[in-house]
Specification:
Elements: H1 3-10, E1 13-18, H2 27-36, E2 40-45, H3 55-62, H4 78-85, E3 88-94, H5 96-104, H6 110-117, E4 122-126, H7 130-134, H8 136-147, E5 151-152, E6 156-159, E7 165-169, H9 173-186, E8 205-211, E9 215-216, E10 222-223, H10 230-241, E11 245-251, E12 261-266, H11 269-279, E13 285-288, E14 295-297, E15 318-320, H12 324-330, E16 338-345, H13 349-360, E17 364-369, E18 380-387, E19 392-399, H14 400-415
Parallel strand pairs: 1-2, 1-3, 3-4, 4-5, 8-11, 8-13, 11-12, 13-16, 16-17
Antiparallel strand pairs: 6-7, 9-10, 14-15, 17-18, 18-19
Length: 420
Amino acid sequence: MDKREQERDRRPRVVLGVSGGIAAYKACELLRRLTESGHDVRVVPTAAALHFVGEATWSALSGNPAGTEVWESVHEVPHVRIGQAADLVVVAPATADILAKAAHGLADDLLTNTLLTARCPVVFAPAMHTEMWEHPATQENVATVRRRGAIVVEPAVGRLTGADTGKGRFPDPVGIFALCRHILRRSDPAGGAAGALVPDLAGRHVVVTAGGTREPLDPVRYLGNRSSGRQGYALAATAAARGARVTLIAGNTELPDPAGVDVVPVGTARQLREAVLKAAADADAVVMAAAVADFRPAVYTAGKIKKIDGQEPEPIMLVRNPDILAELSADRARPGQVVVGFAAETDDVLANGRAKLARKGCDLLVVNEVGEHKAFGSAENEAVVLAADGTETPVPYGPKDALADRVWDLVVPRMAETRP
């Protein structure tokens, strides 16, 4: 084996299954990102998919032959070997037809055979019309493959084929790519060809808040904070990668929606409270990562506050906003619901964090120091996770998705006694 073959053999092996939907052309972007980031990608399109994007395109973009038939290269036993050797299988787009076949174990082409032989993480990124996605048969099939450990990304809401609009749009390829990379990072190479990844949040509904709230002073100005929403978005994305149904309540961010996450935009603290209480009604865990304003102006000025020469501005009177974290902790929407808070501190970080944990009554409190070039707006973070049982878990400085995974690692066992 020459050096080039050795390097190729060390690359993560990804099977990109493409089923027959108009969104097949968007999978080319996903394929490009996977190959350019060093993954060895084998595209397995269905016969229907080739009506949308030809075999030559898949082969050229991946650098590998794009097989469609179990009878091609029979001596290599492709219907078994492709799945056995994979580190990840992602089906994008996944039509209602391929989801039905996967749920019922049908194997009438190379892709469905690959799905049966794969012992690695499997991701489905659905794309179809709203009526097809919402049909009870499709929902039962989705529930079945999720129960078996596959991750089914929630489709996006938007423009569909023709003039139709609704839920069923192919998720953003950039988000799917990020999801795939996260899953591969978490896979354990000792678990087999790809390593087994247990989607430990499968069947769970989690609510995450992110970003910062803004309290308007007048039509132009507001009281706000410097939160970018990155940590909350990382929590939402990692939860989706671990199999959860995720509701992300986002306040004033400019970040793209994570793949497979239901995003609810809000502006003020009171709007965030209303959205959180609604979403938390059937949630197994609520993670309050948003920077929620403690106060709001007592009076909203309908016209822009003017500067008048020779006069000092009128003082701005503030009133308290509702304490959402304390309210959630005191009145759990369902038995066993886990509530996680965040504490951004500038001094006496751990002492203030412990006091806040006792005051709020949540199960876990993620405490981090903030300030100039610390936490806010950064792609990295470090923190200490305080627990109501007195344990403390330091998380060293690193990517925010690493901190997010550590938080979920601590949440999962606390939900263990209430498995659905």
